[in-house]
Specification:
Elements: E1 3-8, H1 12-21, E2 27-33, H2 36-45, E3 50-53, H3 62-71, E4 77-82, H4 87-95, E5 100-103, H5 108-117
Parallel strand pairs: 1-2, 1-3, 3-4, 4-5
Helix pairs in contact: 2-3
Amino acid sequence: MQYQVIICDDSKLGRRSVNRCLPEGFASEVHMAANGLEAMEILRNHSIDVLFLDLTMPKMDGIEVLENILLEKISASVIVISGDVQPKMQERVIELGALEFIKKPLQQSQLVETLKKFDLLPEQV
């Protein structure tokens, strides 16, 4: 199965890094968002399966995105990828519905294991 994906990070390098770590054939389409406002706009207008979300961004941060997803009852699997590794922040994103918190810098093996853990990736990949 292929997924509709958003990669949301204010860093162009961060977005490219996540995109490069996606397993081949994982995404049918990848949308890029430079901040939470852009991500919410895409979520409202497309049927998104998976959102890879940074926390520290201008205009709307990752916590606000998670809160809005809950408020608007948007169904998308969210995986947070952030350099903000405070235990309280990690707990908060899980409380707000994120599947997992992965610390930057992202390692492809870590991303693949997370996708497998939540049945977002066939075992063969």
